[in-house]
Amino acid sequence: MKFTRRDFLEAAGAVVAAAGGGCSRQPATPNRLHGATGVELGVENAALPDYSHDLERYLVRIASEARERRRQVIDAISTPQGIQERQKVITAQVWKMLGGPLERTSLNPRVMGVVERSGCRIERLTFESRPRLHVTANLYLPAGAGRHPAILAPLGHSANGKAWPSYQKLFSSLARKGYVVLASDPFGQGERIEYPGSHPGQSAIGGGTSEHEYAGRRLILLGANFSLFRVWDGIRGIDFLLTRAEVDPERIGCCGQSGGGTLTQFLAALDSRIRVAVVSEGNTENVAQADVEPPGSADDAEQNVVPALSYGIDRADLLYAFAPKPLLMTVTLHDAGHTYSPEYVASSLDLFAEYKRAYNLLGADDRVSLQVTTEQHGYVYELRRATYAWFNRWFEMKNADDEEASPVVETDEALFVTPTGFVTTSFGGDSALSLTRQMAATVRTSPASGADDMRQRIRTVLGIETSRGGALASRVLATIRKPGYRAEQFEFTSNQEIRIPGWLLTPDTSGSSTPTVLYVGEAAASSSVAEDGFVERLVTNGGCRVATIDVRGRGDCAIAYPQRGRFYFSDRVSDEAYLTWFSLILGRPLLGGQVYDTLRALDYLRSRPDVSGAVSLVGDGPHGVIALYAAALDERVRGVALRQTVTDYRSLAIAERYTQPFGIYAYGLLGEFDLPEVAGAVAPRSVLLLNLSTPLGEPAGAAARERYRGVPNARVEEAVGGEDTVQILAAWLGGKGVPGASYQFPL
């Protein structure tokens, strides 16, 4: 049974009333509570607002608007020419967003061994999709002579890559039916794990999609998507197939399951040599789907396209670009709310309806099909049989059937291409990280022409509205008297759906010269103002007036647990990364919304008659970047201080290991600015940088001083302990500090 905060307050009020309200002779009404000593309640019955659905409502509105814009474009297409024009737009735009295409270089294939089996043989080989980027692969070859249709088989998220049993059954069965099949390990899986664990197939940073995420987040800063690396491996895989005498170049197919199905969607849009495709349980659902509950269908790095919806493109467009070539989609009804979002099946049906309409306009109704099962996620027997039948039909394999004998499943070691089971230790060469570093070396920020230019760049990259709207709607929820200061709990409306709660702590001795600071902390605002907490010490020991807020997505504004899909969403809402992906795909980075909330908080403070003089900003940890952006955008800010914030984004993009949260990223950011350039745009106002961090969250030390050496308005300092931090900040803000303190930081 649910018991809400409102239920609790009303029940508590009833208890007080039944007890006669303590010493009071007047019974309290059930719907009204009275503050404790020193507490003045500013809202009726003290029911604190629930902010947990504000961000959800905002994101749903943005997604719904994007969905409607795209729907109007698709519905307006009524001719084959219109479809072809849309397909050209999709292909060009997807390549642009991914950051490619890349340069075709020598494949340098090497066969490392052969496994002979009845009806087929398996070559254990490697080729280079980029110079020194070794792709470990198995090539399944049929026993018969002559040229055969060839199938590129992208893999799902199996830890052992190409050796996953159901995949082996598919590949060997296809080979026995007369197909050449190429299956290669993806980045971070099988023999291509880049952070080797204690044994083959194990990653030191986590299995499944962990290495994909680790690599993919970096690429966002460079204006690229991790799908680029996966797609390029697939395209070069087709290039390799076409070098083989056994392959008929006019009969190239592609099939994959789960993440491999999603990669098949990308390849179908981007490589015209693919003539027939099977997408088995791929991510065939739009991000801007009907009835979306954020983070919706946002998934790991390789299945997302940033910032697709800002260009009117969603996942459905990938296979839309494949029409009228033969396409089979298969889904399991069990995936909805388990492997994929709760709307997976409904959204897949929406996509299929779009494809049916397009194929109909192109006179190819019989070339698109959707088939389902109810088994759990996997390339299961019935879906493998559907795959055989589809390829047999369209490649005219008249002597092949859709049956499956009991194929031999090899051990992982039998299919190894490398001696150790790890490319990194056996062959060396490049990796996703080294490729990213190469890309980062080519991304150069053109100098801003001035502060106005920098402000425009920040707004564009972070998706921040230029106008901050009209007057703020605000109210005080409670006022609490504390020893030496007064704490006010307030709330204001940042934009249409977003309400921002916060606290304002004012010393009893405050006057016109008392410095005011807006603190954007990593912890929730409520914990920031706890007794003996950082904010309280800055007030009582530093003599400052301090406001602290919860920006959207954090603290009391953290998004609520979705109502549906308890299996799918269980680890997605607690992880800010999925919300970040969702907002990035929409072209509205969560970071930009948080900066906007901070700007509106500045507006709120200035609207108060008791706040005089300019307001300074202090940002804590990852939230330091929010404070820095806000200071650059709002010229009235007196100065900004960052505490334990990462030194810069470039170091994140090329770091071998990092712990900084994904929430501070934005697409293509390094092409426009980095944090030192933003700090320079705050000039002539002061930027204080306290205890800056490395990508791993460790003290940056001398590296921080070197990174900001050319920023004259920035001062890098190191504090020892919390009280030292308070005194440095108090002195910088112009507060009272401790008598005899030597810190002198005039703003």
Structure description:
The protein has 747 residues and is an alpha/beta fold. The protein contains 22 helices and 19 strands. The longest helix has 22 residues.
Quick structural summary:
With 747 residues, the chain is α/β, with parallel strands linked by helices. It has 22 helices and 19 strands.
Question: Secondary-structure blueprint of this entry?
Answer:
Elements: H1 5-18, E1 39-41, H2 54-75, H3 80-98, E2 110-117, E3 120-130, E4 133-142, E5 148-152, H4 165-176, E6 180-184, H5 210-221, H6 227-241, E7 247-257, H7 259-270, E8 276-280, H8 316-320, E9 327-332, H9 344-361, E10 368-373, H10 381-394, H11 423-426, H12 432-442, H13 451-462, E11 474-482, E12 485-493, E13 499-507, E14 516-520, H14 525-528, H15 534-540, E15 545-549, H16 576-586, H17 590-607, E16 615-620, H18 624-633, E17 639-643, H19 649-654, H20 675-681, E18 686-690, H21 702-707, E19 714-717, H22 721-733
Parallel strand pairs: 5-6, 5-7, 7-8, 8-9, 9-10, 14-15, 14-16, 16-17, 17-18, 18-19
Antiparallel strand pairs: 1-11, 2-3, 3-4, 4-6, 11-12, 12-13, 13-15
| Inertia-based shape | elongated
Main beta sheet: 10 strands, mixed
- Class computed from helices, strands and strand pairing: alpha/beta
Cα-to-Cα separation, first versus last residue: 56 Å
Radius of gyration, whole Å: 29 Å
Output mean pLDDT. 91
Q: Report strand order across the widest sheet.
A: 1-11-12-13-15-14-16-17-18-19
The proportion of strand residues reads: 15-25%
Helix content: 25-40%
Question: How many DSSP-defined strands?
Answer: 19
Low-confidence blocks of residues:
1-29, 735-747
User: Counting H and I runs of at least 4 residues, what is the number of helices?
Assistant: 22
